Amino acid sequence: MSQLSSTEPPADVEVEAEDSAPETPDGPPIDEARQVVLDALAAELGDGLVATETHRDDVWLRVRRDSWKPAAEACKSIGFDYFCFLSGLDWMPSQSVMRGEVSSDVDVGDDTDEAAATEVAEDEEAMATDESEREAAAGDTTDGWKTGHAGGDTRFQVFARLYSIERQMGLTLKADLDEDAPSVDTWSEVYAGADWHERETWEMFGFDFVGHPHLVHMYLPGEFEGFPLRKDFPLLAREVKPWPGLVDVEPMPETDEEAAAAGVAAGGAETDATGAEGGTEGS
Amino acid sequence: MTAVSEQQRMAYIAGQAADARVNVELQTEEMTLNLGPQHPATHGTLRIIARLDGEQVINAEVVCGYMHRGYEKLTEVRTFPQVTTLINRIDWLSSFANEVPFILAAEQLMEVEAPPRAQYIRTIMFELSRIANITLFIGEMGVQLGAITPVFFAFRDREYVLNLIEAATGGRFHPNYDRMGGLKDDLPRGWVAETHDAMKRIRTYCDQLEDLLMGNEIFEARTRGVGVIPADVGLSYGLSGANIRASGVDWDLRRDAPSPLVWKDLDWKVWTHPDGDSFARYWVRLQETREATKMVDQMLDGLPAGPIQAKVPRIIKVPAGEAWAHTENPLGEMGYYVVSQGGLGPVRCKIRSASFNNTSIVPWLLKGVYVPDIITILSSLYFILGDIDR
Questions:
Q1: Which of A83, A146, A195 is closest, CB to CB, to B341?
Q2: Nearest CA of chain B to the CA of A35: how many Å?
Q3: Per residue in B364-377, pLDDT tens?
Q4: A153, pLDDT greater than 80
Q5: Which class for A172: exposed (0-12), middle (13-18), buried (19 or more C-beta within 10 A)?
Q6: What is the ipTM of this complex?
Q7: Is B268 helix (H, G, I), strand (E, B) or coil?
């Protein structure tokens, strides 16, 4: 059993954990580390690096399409040796009902006690302002679609995530792709794991990975037509029958009668009304 | 002609000569071996087409997709709370662990955090699903190498853990227990004491398995030096979890990544092994199971009182944004890249499952191995089909 060993005693584990993970994600240590990486990549890629964004403890980079492979090489050379995943994004607004607003007959603040109801309302408010802020921050509304961190100019984006074990830091890379013929260089020579991920992205989004050695179907049968994860690919099950789970707003068991009473008494009951009534009954 | 190209020419000639020699020595006809889709070593339906020269694999191709359920597309037509039902079924041996990273990603976007008691119970359930998952691996790898006993032990002792999960969540296999901002239910009465007992039992199980298999001549002969993965190759394939720790990479997201779950408050140890072979992967997982039982014991002792659910609106609308959350699942790094545009459901949810990357190394790893070692390598890499096919 002499070969069996663990490289670290528990004491070191704790020390390292404290070092590598500061309490506040925006504290100075992690920001410096990010800046070093961003500077190194900016120097390597030049104007191939279009945009960067840091949010929480993550870093997003957007590179030009022709810098996609050089970006991978640059990242690998500065210690990003772990390949996490690669996939695609389609920013076209989808027809899914889940994107829509909550219909007006749904009473959102359907809570029993008054305090809770107001708190929920506050939460909602906070969330709403937050949402609008983020929308403003995301900004780029090109041809009607919103894009995410580090922006984007086209409908399709390829994105991938890398991680550096020694730096304890992850990167998300994105690149805009042409809508009519999305294609980008393969990463499979840089990261062997990209091979399967690119096959999956190829069949799901129809992105072409130039130089990929074996671009064949991963999951779908060979004769499959269309690219399922594109937003314009209809999900047939939903076309035939609407999703029954959308209307799971039936009242909670204990609030059943109250809600019914409120509905009868006040018509389209306001949040406050329901809350107050619940409060009196409860006390 | 420059010196370099002369060198290349000589290397080419030497290569040709070596090929010719091999061809003369082993005048065997190539054969194609089709392993699966139904094979006990594949934990589901995975097909491997291996071209053989005698007993040796020249080339292996992995065919997956027999169980592809299209979860990434289906998440786009579900509301956020409904998604957990789907993702329970990705790695079905540790379903609760699948829910956590998705919920964490949604919580990041909503900027809510579950109360401390909920985080503790989450971590306990997470580690219980790890135990439920890996005890099965520990037994099953034995049975695939010809040792029948371990798998019976595994199913016997795993049952205690599944009973605990069922008692707390209502679901034996698919708990669907995690909620945005908290949990579905609190723990039932008597659960803590029973869990302590079960953890003791699992530690005994680990000891028994160590007695049965470690030092067993056949087991060692069939696993030592078989399927060696160098750390840099493993990382470039995106191997994670015990597979990469068995190659000497000291990396565990429970310790290294910031997370609202409570692993950092506990006294535990990340086990690694320098060898990178099938034995190392088995050994690391066995140690991790034991470590997980200790973590559960510590958490049960330190379980704080308080609410288990933060205030969230009844109809959950997740603010627009992108979030990435990942955790150290039993099979490796599992993560969700969630894109929301302020609606009821995610606009895009990229599921990064551990087994997909862990299996992608199989064609590389099988080159040149002998047929019986295919089984050793497949079972030591330990993938769950639902986790590959999603």
A1: A146
A2: 19
A3: 999 888 888 888 88
A4: no
A5: buried
A6: 0.83
A7: coil
